[in-house]
Specification:
The structure is a homodimer of 270-residue chains.
Chain A: H1 3-13, E1 17-21, H2 38-50, E2 56-60, H3 61-65, H4 68-81, E3 87-94, H5 98-111, E4 116-119, E5 138-144, H6 165-174, E6 182-186, H7 194-200, E7 205-208, H8 218-225, E8 232-236, H9 238-241, H10 249-265
Parallel strand pairs in A: 1-2, 1-8, 2-3, 3-4, 4-5, 5-6, 6-7, 7-8
Helix pairs in contact in A: 2-4, 2-10
Chain lengths: 270, 270
């Protein structure tokens, strides 16, 4: 999906909601367990129910890998089920030397047809540029993450610039691509940093996890991070997909997604 | 595998060779292509042929993911085929928030029974500590990698210490575990840095990629990085597994592995 399609979808749906499919086979409703592929059936129902309110879906690969090749089968089926009208994110946090990164790009862009992959920047440009060779595909680079231990390294100040490490990541990597093939992960729990992030990357999209279960709010994220194209994809995973553990799980997921979309609506206007 | 078993194996075989199974279906000998699972058959033959000369095997997950769930099936079969007498490394470079890291640990330690996983430290302790809950399992953290763009961030100096980022990674993360559950990745192409690395982590094992195709030498690595327990796992991937593209691929792989083992022999003595 290219940038103009993404922006159009956001303004049409008045939503920048990304639904996170962190689907844990231990946590899905019991009545699904007799089906051939409970994880896929769960995801299918969640996608169908939340589609009116969301513009993106993020598949957290770890939850599928935990079941090995069977989990990857569920991942493949889920990725294939996602309609082309939504922005598809493989939340895989990959990052390696060039010839290995080529393989990851092949896995996520060719084999699975995702629009984007999340990337850990520790190994530098070799981890990023192979993803940028694909037309209308995106690299989503970890900048300032939502977890407590993001402070261990990301906030460390560098001596040869005024930048902290995550600011250096923004500065250096934004020059490797452009606003149509690079996004950044910034945790909603770091909303106070959004204004300074926008000074470095005013026009890029930001993928914002951490709303809901992790404690961030939609209002704070918009006030600190929105730009003229919205410029945000706000993710909620557990708060939506596990809204109910009963047979009504999809209905409840839709209600939670709708609540978030309603919160977003007033901020997403032409 | 625990540390004492690993050290014992190294001194028995007089080798710290790790064979990297970066198996690319496009690059394996053509005569295997008619078999049901060419990648697994290739790996099986490579493992059988190189086993006398190596103490560890490293599976680069990207090369398997590029073929989706079918690739993961080959990965599972290869991991299961590796004997318990060798140290098994999932070169996956994972790293995420705590609840996701739990899933990665489940994938690689429970489902696939690897001894260790490589980890990108950008997100801090949340990416590391869940792996350390498993007895006799290891987290192998990226410190100073072998690729050219490792300089983008890893060598950046921090302002509140004399450390560069990779040295800060060594300092902070070594306190999260111990020498029996943590190792570090240091590229053989960075042999000049090994002495200063040993000042920070004198007793840890180092996983050293970059010998062979990437240009590092066994001698330089031993001279800069060995400790009393050897303390090194030196990886070669392409130089061994693609030594021949013909029907003699396994024989040639064994010859290359033996050459490296011979180079190591004089350094690995009781």
């Amino acid at each position: 999906m290219d940038r103009s399609q993404l922006v159009k979808t956001i303004f049409e749906k008045r939503s920048c909601l990304c639904v996170g499919l962190d689907t844990d086979i231990q946590k899905i409703p019991k009545h699904l367990s007799t089906l051939e592929d409970p994880v896929f059936e769960f995801n299918k129902a969640i996608i169908d129910a939340t589609l009116p309110f969301s513009v993106a879906y993020k598949i957290n690969t770890a939850f599928y890998e935990a079941s090995g090749s069977a989990g990857w089968k569920s991942l493949e089926k889920t990725a294939a089920y996602l309609p082309d009208s939504v922005f598809k994110i493989a939340d895989a946090k990959r990052g390696d030397i060039g010839n290995t990164t080529d393989m990851y790009a092949k896995a996520f862009f060719e084999h699975l047809n995702f629009d984007s992959v999340t990337i850990a920047p520790y190994m530098g440009s070799d981890s990023i540029t192979p993803f940028l060779k694909y037309k209308d595909k995106w690299a989503i680079i970890l900048a300032l993450t939502s977890n407590a231990s993001s402070t261990d390294f990301q906030l460390k100040k560098l001596s040869d610039s005024d930048n902290s490490l995550y600011q250096e990541v923004l500065t250096l990597t934004s020059a490797m691509g452009n606003i149509s093939n690079l996004m950044y992960v910034v945790g909603a729990t770091k909303a106070s940093e959004l204004k300074s992030i926008r000074k470095l990357v005013p026009d890029h999209f930001l993928l914002i996890p951490g709303v809901g279960a992790q404690g961030g709010t939609v209002k704070d994220v918009f006030e600190g991070g929105a730009n003229k194209d919205c410029g945000l994809l706000i993710n909620s995973s557990r708060g939506i997909i596990y809204a109910s553990k009963g047979e009504d799980f999809a209905v409840k997921a839709a209600q939670e997604a709708k609540l978030l979309q309603k919160e977003m609506e007033s901020f997403v206007t032409v």
